[in-house]
Amino acid sequence: MKTERICILGGSGFVGTHLVSLLAARGIRVRVLSHRRELTKALILLPTVEVIETDVHDQHELVRHFRGMDAVINLVGILHESNVGRVDLPSARRGDFQKVHIELARKVVHACGETGVHRLLHMSALGADPNSRSAYQRSKGVAEALVREAGMRHREHENWYLNGPKFVHGYGLNVTLFRPSVIFGRGDSFLSMFARLLRLFPVLPLASADTRFAPVHVDDVARAFADSLDNPATFGQTYDLCGPRAYTLRELIEYVGALIGRPRSVLALGKWPSYFQAWAMEFKPGRKLMTRDNYFAMCTDNVCSGPWPAVFAFQPAALEAVAPEYLRDDTPRARYEDYREQAGR
């Protein structure tokens, strides 16, 4: 059956906006669930997109909005817990990873089962591991296990029923999981953040400078999701998504510095200085740049063990082919964005 109607959770996010736009361009009807409608201004104008303001953590709301859908895509995720650094709270109450990554995945699986949705695509992360020291990676790993179990039960039920899969206790899904390395592109929170820091500071103290990453372009991640929807070969599969080349964090920072015309000295911190820098940054008000949980995640390289999945009929874009368009100050697009910012648009 061709997928014609999709419900997306996290459609207003970085990957979500690219994926929704791609699906709309393919003529697919997309329902985006968002906790704040104003975050989806760029999507509301797309002709096949319906934006609904709702609480995605409400099981009844999920069931209500999943009805009539051919597929569900869960892109919801956070990098930092809102209560990080709150030593005055019991450990069980300090964060949101459990709610956002684990409990939501469980609710999505059950809502799909209750409404008869056959197809679920789930965003995880490279390095997800239920045994990781990083709470982020642990929660992503547990969520993966929940989603995989739904797919496994689907295959078990197929052996019992001659007329196709049956939905029992909220299960019965063709699932596909995606585990990207760090994602880059216009509006990202990785390379763009370092570009801002390099414009401000002459020397950049850098934790975990030798950790390796394989940045993957946001458009390639979105296309992998979209191309998987109707491809039975992707059912029950997990795909690690990486760009064509791996870099140390130091190499990435130096590349960004050269690209924006702000070459800076990088002061690589050792193990304990890296840890204490992350700890100190937890107490920074506002948006977190780094936490101890990030440090624990960065103790392991964030690279793929194999090549780009052959099931996708395209190759991922190189960082050097894309990053100059949105990081450099002297491109026409960058000047246009500056004009818009100055005009308050």
Question: Care to describe what's here?
Answer:
- By secondary structure, the chain is α/β, with parallel strands linked by helices.
- It has a domain at 5-184 and 216-242 and 304-316: NAD(P)-binding Rossmann-like Domain (Rossmann fold).
- 40% of the residues lie in helices and 15% in strands.
- The chain contains twelve helices and 13 strands.
- The strands form four sheets. It has a seven-stranded parallel β-sheet, sandwiched between helices.
Outline of the structure:
About 40% of the residues lie in helices and about 15% in strands. With about 350 residues, the chain is of the alpha/beta class.
Topology record:
Layout: E1 5-9, H1 14-25, E2 29-34, H2 41-44, E3 49-53, H3 59-66, E4 71-74, H4 97-115, E5 119-123, H5 135-160, E6 174-180, E7 183-184, H6 191-200, E8 203-206, E9 212-213, E10 216-217, H7 218-228, E11 237-241, E12 247-248, H8 249-259, E13 265-268, H9 271-281, H10 292-297, H11 319-327, H12 332-342
Parallel strand pairs: 1-2, 1-4, 2-3, 4-5, 5-6, 6-11, 7-10, 8-13
Antiparallel strand pairs: 9-12
How would the global form be characterised?
globular
Class by SSE composition: alpha/beta
Strand order of the biggest β-sheet: 3-2-1-4-5-6-11
CATH T-level topology of one domain:
Rossmann fold
Secondary-structure element order, N to C? EHEHEHEHEHEEHEEEHEEHEHHHH
Reported CATH architecture of one domain: 3-Layer(aba) Sandwich
Q: How much of the sequence is in beta strands? A: 15-25%
How can the largest sheet be summarized?
Answer: 7 strands, parallel
How many DSSP helices?
Answer: 12
Radius of gyration: 21 Å
Q: What does the average pLDDT come to?
A: 86
The CATH class assignment of one domain is: Alpha Beta
- The residue fraction in helices comes out at 40-55%
Q: Alpha-carbon distance between the termini?
A: 42 Å
- The CATH superfamily of one domain is NAD(P)-binding Rossmann-like Domain
